[in-house]
Amino acid sequence: MFSIYLHFGKFSQPKKLFPLRSPLFALPAVIRTAVEAFRRKKYETTVYYAQTALPYRALVRDKGRLGEYYTFMHLRNLGGYKKFLFNCYVPKSDEKTTEIDVIMLHETGIYVFESKNYSGWIFGSADGKYWTQSLNAGGRAEKHKFYNPVFQNNNHIKWLKTFLADYGEKPFVSYIVFSDRCRFMDIKLTSRDQFVMHRKDAAADV
Questions:
Q1: DSSP 3-state of 144
Q2: pTM, whole model, 2 decimals?
Q3: How do beta strands 120-125 and 130-137 pair?
Q4: CB 84 within 8 Å of CB 100
Q5: How far is 71 from 29, CA to CA, in rounded Å?
Q6: Mean pLDDT value of segment 122-146
Q7: Do 111 and 173 contact (CB within 8 A), yes or no?
Q8: Cα dist. 55→46, 48, 61, 65, 125 in Å?
């Protein structure tokens, strides 16, 4: 076992402080392990885990899936009768599929969520083909373009409506949900039916 010693003055005898195997050194690791175990057990009780069977370690390493899970966690306590569906593959006319991140079947309608677990500054308009994410990269802006999520979710709803056509008319509502870590700099929407928000505001806006 190794120990830490303190020396006081040139001719003094070293004073033993405590061994490196002291519980004091292990405390942060113990706390981290306990917190991770608590989060894992909580996750494994959720509808998200029941449907996806995604292991907790895989969840925390997948930014996209983690964003979907956080979106669900912000919505789970909404009032009224509701059911959640995750990572739904809806058929299209070309024999391909479109994937929807989160669907909430609610007594008031069908809510379709496109999750964007992005940080940085976000720029975009409802009618532009691409939006921009700007990140701080050592004092300079690093920009990344991504397909307009309003277009993306409208396409999801189009095919979902087609798939559910035999079940009668129901209101479909599109929500684009971004991480709370990002900042909306210049988002131009053209309709009251277009909803773009931070994750923390999703439950209040639905």
A1: strand
A2: 0.83
A3: antiparallel
A4: no
A5: 29
A6: 95
A7: yes
A8: 12, 11, 10, 11, 36
